[in-house]
Amino acid sequence: MTAAIDKVWQQMQHLGEQVRADEPLLSETLISLKASSFVEGAAIRLASLVADELVTQTQLERLFIRANDEATQQAMVQDLLSCYERDPACKSYLTPWLYFKGYHALQLYRLAHNLYRSGRESVAVWVQHQVARRMGVDIHPNAELGVGIMIDHATGVVIGETAVIGNNVSILHSVTLGGSGLDRGQRHPRVGNDVLISTGAKLLGDITVGDGAKVGAGSLVTSSVAAHTTVAGVPAKVVGATKQRCPAQDMDHSLECKSDKC
Question: If exposure means fewest CB atoms within 10 Å of the residue's CB, which of 31, 90, 224, 247 is most exposed?
Answer without folding.
Answer: 31
